[in-house]
Amino acid sequence: MTATGSLPAPLHDALEKVLGSSGLLTASSDMASYLTDWRNLFHGRACAVARPANTQACAEVVRLCAEHGVPVVPQGGNTSMVGGATPDTTGHALVLVTSRMNRVREIDPIDNTMVVEAGVTLKAAQDAATNAGLMLPLSISSEGSAEIGGVLATNAGGNNTVRYGNARELVLGLEAVLPDGQVLDLMRRLRKDNTGYALRQLFVGSEGTLGLITTAILQLQPKPKSIEAALCAVADAKTALALFAAFRNTEPSAIQAFEFMSGLSMNLVNMLIPDAALPLSEPAPAYVLVELASPRGGDALRELMEEVLGKAFEDGLVSDAVLAESETQRLALWKLREEHAEAQKRAGASVKNDVSVPLSAIPTFLDRATAACEKLIPGIRVAPFGHIGDGNIHFNLVQPEGMDGNAFLARDHEMMDTVANIVRELGGSFSAEHGVGQLKTYMMPSWRGGAELDMMHRIKNAVDPKDIMNPGKIFPAS
């Protein structure tokens, strides 16, 4: 169901004056694509969709909505895995889309920074940095659609976290519109600025509940002159971690990404994604994609890759491997990793568990969680993959072949809780990088209750006492 709610006439006229007729959508057909999430789990309604082109228009939209008591749901590329950018079903909220705020304003090659608006896609920002001879190290599967504002609001992690950290570590400054329409200017490109609270960090990871990020200053890195990638066949997560330790103990600064993929999940990619063929002699129980990078040229990385993998073969950690011989081959290896979510979507209904545990606990977690889920739903296809180098595993569960997809999804909380209980026992988190959104709000009281959740409530109430910004996200219903 995607129908329009009621936009008060005075608010409609004021918004149209600010945005123009093309910047304000009220017809159901025009709004439909903004009211459903990427996974097709949440279907909302809205009174309107606003598409401001700059910070001033964005601030005026939020101010007007606050005056009329209309909630605002910020939305970037609409790639949320947890329904974080989808409105509820009341039709009361306005969806504020940032896609028209899409300029890379400046790149400073001395500071190694870029000033970028919220609606710039992550891929466009990466390309702009590359064209300037630099690199924006944040990389996620949805980077062609995900926009900078949403990437920061969810503190995205991704493939290169093991070396460069999450989005939070890359933000020097930002500009945000507060729930009352004020513009908070924190656009300082300083590495050192010890003047009270680091307010910018309140907005990174807040999922739009405290305000709307409109512009950011991001740290860049030197563009690598040398990159080496290899796909390795391993027996299990334990041997994958042993291989990670071998690279880390040899040259930790060279590791740019270290990704784990289960055999079942890789099989789905090979079966369901065109031009995603496994380049190894035969299927394996599990796989690792390792990428090394350096701002220096030469053959040192190739020698390092061959040295570590040669010893890994001798020690029985790796049974087969292929090294990329060109950029085309490197991208083909990454395609095998990046298409796991899409392959699982094509395989049927799936329940996603974006969890993290200490590295040493990953093998135990995978063994226990797999056994528990297979006992809960016989025939379930357990298809974990993810950023094993930083402890983040996407423990995804695909419906048994022949089972009704809706019947499978009706038991999503059972599956999520089964996995989460094991994660809790191992000292992990039920949300590593996707956020809470509206999918996992029910988990917050037991996981973050007491003083921690109370502190979050106090901050939310202080900044947004009318609950204007993205209501129903992060916090459980009271």
UniProtKB/TrEMBL annotation:
Residues 42-223 form the FAD-binding PCMH-type domain. The keyword Zinc does not apply. One of its GO terms (molecular function) is catalytic activity. Keywords: FAD, Flavoprotein. The keyword Metal-binding does not apply. PROSITE patterns: FAD_PCMH. GO terms for biological process: respiratory electron transport chain. Its cofactor is FAD. Gene3D superfamilies: 3.30.465.10, 3.30.70.2190, 3.30.70.2740, Uridine Diphospho-n-acetylenolpyruvylglucosamine Reductase, domain 2 (3.30.43.10), Vanillyl-alcohol Oxidase, Chain A, domain 4 (1.10.45.10). PANTHER family: BLL6224 PROTEIN, D-2-HYDROXYGLUTARATE DEHYDROGENASE, MITOCHONDRIAL. Belongs to the FAD-binding oxidoreductase/transferase type 4 family. This is FAD-binding protein. It comes from Acetobacter estunensis. The lineage of its organism: Bacteria, Pseudomonadati, Pseudomonadota, Alphaproteobacteria, Acetobacterales.
